[in-house]
Specification:
The protein is of the alpha/beta class and about 450 residues long. The protein is built from 15 helices and 16 strands. About 35% of the residues lie in helices and about 15% in strands. The strands form four sheets. It has an eight-stranded parallel β-barrel with strand order 3-6-9-12-13-14-15-16. Helix 7 packs across helix 8.
Length: about 450
C-alpha cells in the first residue's frame, strides 16, 4: 500500500497532517535505564488519560517520543517493522489488547476500536535491545452475535466466534469515514504507528470450526468446516491480507489441541484442523506473503515442544507462570539452544477471571523480563491489557472477551473508559510495571 495511511486517516478525520511536538509528553515520559534512555513511553497513567485525546494528538505524542529523538512534522511515507531477525517471536513479549473493550461506546453501539488502539500506543513500553514487544489485538473480524452493539454485563457476546469472508468488525473500524479511508487503510495506519513506536503487531485467530462462520452475499452464513477446501482457502486468504498490511504475528486459540492432542481438556466448540493441515496453513501464509519473519504463537502449545516446533510455531503459552523466578531462569537455561520455538512465561492469559494481587502480577512480570542468565536466552512471555492497565475490580480479561458491557455512568465513551479501569491504584500499578520495563529495555 503506497499511500501514507496515517496522513490519510488524519485527513479523513478532518485534521491537518502538519504535526507539532507535544511538550508535556516530552517532559513526563518514562525512559529506559542506561543506554536505553532514548526509548520512551508514557507511564504512571490510566488509559482514559490517552483515550480522551484526539487521534491527531495521539499521533503527535507518538512522534514526540521518537526513539531517534527526531521530530517529523509530517508522518513519514515509509515505516518498516523493527528488525529483530526472522526468529524474533521466540524471544518476544506478547501483550494482548482487547480493542473492543476500549472502543467508543455511544448510544448502545461499539465502534472505532482501532482508533482507541492508536491512542493507547504511547503507553506501551517499546521493545528492548535484544527482543521485541508485540501487541496482539483480540478482535479484527466481526464476531457472530452482536457485532457493533454493547450488551448487558452478563449477556454473552463472545469475540471467540467470528465471521470470515466479509469486512472487518464494526467494533474496530470507523465506518463513518470509509468513504475517505478504507478499513484496510485504517488498520495499516495503526500498524505503521506501532512500528514507529518500535513495536511488533499481531492478531488473535480461532480454529474451532463451530466458532467460525463463512459469510456469503445474499445467503445465510455457513458453519466453517476443516473438510471444505474452499473454507480453508478463505481462512488462509484472510490471514494473508492482514500480514500484507504489516501484521506479523498470529496468536492461535486452542492450538494445543490441533490434531486431536489432549482433547480431554479441550474447551472450544467444534472440530479442529489436523496436524498436517495446520502445517500446510502456516506454511502457505508464509509463502504467499513472502515473509520469513512471521511469528505464530499457539495457546497452551507447550507440552510437546518438538511437536509444536515442527508445526511451524515460534512460541507457546501457559507452561510456566512466573511465580518462581528461579524456575523461569532454569527453564531458560535448559532451552537456550532451542532457537526456533520455546514455551512462554505467562503473567495472565485471556481466560483469567481476576483474583491475582498486584504484587503477584508484578512478580510475574519481573520473572518474564529478567528470568535468564543471558538476554539472548530469554523465554517469550504473555500478558494481557490488564497486566499493564488494571481493570476495575468487578470485571476481568475473560469477562470482557465473552461480554461487551458499557461501564459508562452517563452514556458517554469517556465515562466508560474512566470506569473500565482501576483508578488511583491502577495508576500506581502502571508506574510500578513501567519501572520494571525501564530496566529491561537496556538488555
Amino acid at each position: 500500500m503506497k499511500n501514507n495511511a496515517v496522513n490519510k486517516l488524519l485527513k479523513a478525520l478532518g485534521e491537518s497532517t502538519k504535526l507539532n511536538i507535544n511538550d508535556y509528553s516530552n517532559y513526563i515520559a518514562f525512559r529506559g535505564v542506561g543506554s536505553a534512555c532514548s526509548k520512551r513511553w508514557l507511564g504512571n497513567i490510566v488509559p482514559a488519560d490517552l483515550l480522551r485525546l484526539s487521534v491527531k494528538e495521539a499521533v503527535e505524542i507518538i512522534l514526540t517520543l521518537s526513539e531517534g529523538c527526531i521530530f517529523y512534522d509530517k508522518f513519514p511515507d515509509y515505516i518498516g517493522t523493527p528488525v529483530y531477525g526472522d526468529k524474533w517471536g521466540r524471544l518476544a513479549n506478547y501483550i494482548e489488547i482487547n480493542d473492543r473493550a476500549i472502543a467508543v461506546m455511544d448510544n448502545g453501539c461499539t465502534c472505532k476500536g482501532i482508533l482507541s488502539c492508536i491512542k493507547l500506543l504511547p503507553a506501551i513500553p517499546p521493545s528492548a535491545k535484544s527482543w521485541a514487544n508485540c501487541i496482539i489485538l483480540s478482535q479484527i473480524w466481526q464476531n457472530i452475535y452482536g457485532d457493533a452493539y454493547e450488551k448487558g454485563p452478563f449477556e454473552e457476546n463472545s469475540i471467540y466466534a467470528l465471521r470470515l469472508n466479509t469486512s472487518y468488525s464494526d467494533n474496530i473500524i470507523d465506518y463513518s469515514i470509509v468513504d475517505k479511508i478504507t478499513p484496510e487503510e485504517q488498520l495499516k495506519a495503526y500498524v505503521d504507528l506501532a512500528h514507529f513506536r518500535g513495536l511488533k503487531v499481531g492478531f488473535r485467530h480461532v480454529i474451532s470450526a463451530d466458532q467460525i462462520k463463512v459469510a456469503r452475499p445474499y445467503h445465510d452464513d455457513e458453519i466453517f468446516s476443516w473438510n471444505n477446501p474452499e473454507h480453508i482457502e478463505i481462512y488462509i486468504t484472510e490471514c494473508v491480507k492482514l500480514m500484507n498490511l504489516g501484521f506479523e504475528c498470529m496468536f492461535i486459540d486452542s492450538a494445543k489441541h490441533i490434531g486431536g492432542y489432549d482433547m480431554a481438556n479441550y474447551t472450544g466448540v467444534g472440530a479442529l484442523p489436523d496436524y498436517h493441515q495446520m502445517q500446510y496453513i502456516l506454511n502457505e501464509i508464509r509463502l504467499r506473503t513472502g515473509k520469513t519473519n512471521i511469528s505464530f504463537v499457539g495457546e497452551k502449545s507447550s507440552d510437546d515442544f518438538e511437536r509444536y516446533r515442527m508445526m511451524g510455531l515460534n512460541a507457546g503459552t501457559d507452561f510456566i507462570t512466573g511465580d518462581n523466578f528461579e524456575a523461569v531462569r532454569n527453564l531458560s537455561e535448559r532451552l537456550k539452544y532451542c532457537r526456533d520455538y520455546a514455551p512462554g512465561v505467562e503473567v495472565t492469559n485471556d481466560n483469567n477471571e481476576g483474583g491475582l494481587s498486584y504484587e503477584q502480577k508484578l512478580n510475574r512480570i519481573n520473572s518474564a523480563l529478567f528470568g535468564f542468565n543471558l538476554a539472548s536466552d530469554k523465554l517469550p512471555s504473555f500478558m494481557q491489557m490488564n497486566d499493564l492497565f488494571p481493570l476495575r475490580y468487578d470485571t476481568s480479561t475473560h469477562h470482557l472477551m465473552m461480554t461487551n458491557p458499557s461501564y459508562s455512568a452517563d452514556g458517554t465513551a469517556l465515562s466508560h473508559w474512566e470506569n473500565l479501569f482501576a483508578k488511583d491504584d491502577g495508576r500506581y500499578y502502571n508506574k510500578c510495571a513501567g519501572e520494571l520495563f525501564a530496566y529491561a529495555l537496556n538488555l
